[in-house]
UniProtKB/TrEMBL annotation:
<keyword id="KW-0812">Transmembrane</keyword>
<feature type="transmembrane region" description="Helical">
    <location>
        <begin position="38"/>
        <end position="55"/>
    </location>
</feature>
<keyword id="KW-1133">Transmembrane helix</keyword>
<protein>
    <submittedName>
        <fullName>Uncharacterized protein</fullName>
    </submittedName>
</protein>
<keyword id="KW-0472">Membrane</keyword>
C-alpha cells in the first residue's frame, strides 16, 4: 500500500499561496486611502472643536 498521497488523495488547500488583487483595486486603492485619511482628520478636528465648545460653555456656568 502506498499510503494516502500515493493513492491519489491530496489534502485540500484552504488558501491560495499567492493572492493577486485585481487591477481595478490597485488603481483606486491610494485614492480610497487618501479619502479615508481626510475623513479621519476632519472628524478629529470636529470632535476637538466640539469638546472646546463644551468646555467653554461649562466655564461660563
Amino acid at each position: 500500500m502506498d499510503g494516502v498521497n500515493g493513492g491519489g488523495i491530496r489534502p485540500k488547500q484552504r488558501f491560495p499561496l499567492i493572492v493577486r488583487p485585481s487591477s481595478s483595486s490597485i488603481h483606486f486603492l491610494p485614492q480610497e486611502l487618501t479619502m479615508a485619511d481626510v475623513a479621519f482628520v476632519v472628524t478629529t478636528i470636529a470632535v476637538f472643536a466640539l469638546v472646546a465648545l463644551v468646555a467653554k460653555g461649562v466655564t461660563k456656568l
